[in-house]
Amino acid sequence: MDIFQTVTTRRCIRKFRPDPVPQGLIREILEAARWSPSWGNTQPWEIVVVAGEPLQRFRKANRTRFLEGAPSNPDVPMPEVWPDVFKKRYMDVGKRVLTALAIPREDKEGRLRYGGDMAALFGAPCLLLFCVDKTLAREYAMLDIGAIQQTVCLLAHARGLRSCILAASVRYPDLIREMIPIREGAAIIMGVALGYADPDAPINNFERERVALDEFTAWID
Fold first, then answer.
1. Is there a contact between 41 and 124 (Cβ–Cβ < 8 Å)?
2. Residue 210 falls within a domain, yes or no?
3. Considering the domain boundaries, does residue 183 fall inside one?
4. How far is CA 97 from CA 16, 30, 119, 126, in A?
């Protein structure tokens, strides 16, 4: 797949098939992704690959905790306030998701059910947890995490896999540490759900939107 096609056709998948992802394919992707750029070649990332029975147990527990209304406490706090222009984009994609699922905005039960599906990683058969050492300046190290995450997602897409960078996967780091061996001293930054997309699911096929180039680019000649 041409790199431009890979970038422009990658999308966040919200319904995966249960088919397991071969470990050899994941290793191939991570082997290439390790060449991602990082500040001073520090390569601060730590990646934990979770699949099989351990992931099934975590998906179930993460979903249950969400549905019980447990407050989230991620190692990297989510912003509580977004400027209006960004909030509008966030709200817009939310509307597209609910429309694809035929869930009216006033259907609180349907929206809660969708939140539970998200907490269950949309059924993905593999989860990659990206971590960094707690001693690092997190705001800076996260630039490197973003670089390798995007690389992983693009490589996965080029190999026929699909992904979703998913904050809901790291909402409860205490639960993760209880169920998954995370190195002591590592901060859990973000998770990527990985697997094969359900090609017929409307939620995987709604029209995507991006702002025009000139809305975020300044040209200085």
1. no
2. no
3. yes
4. 15, 30, 15, 22
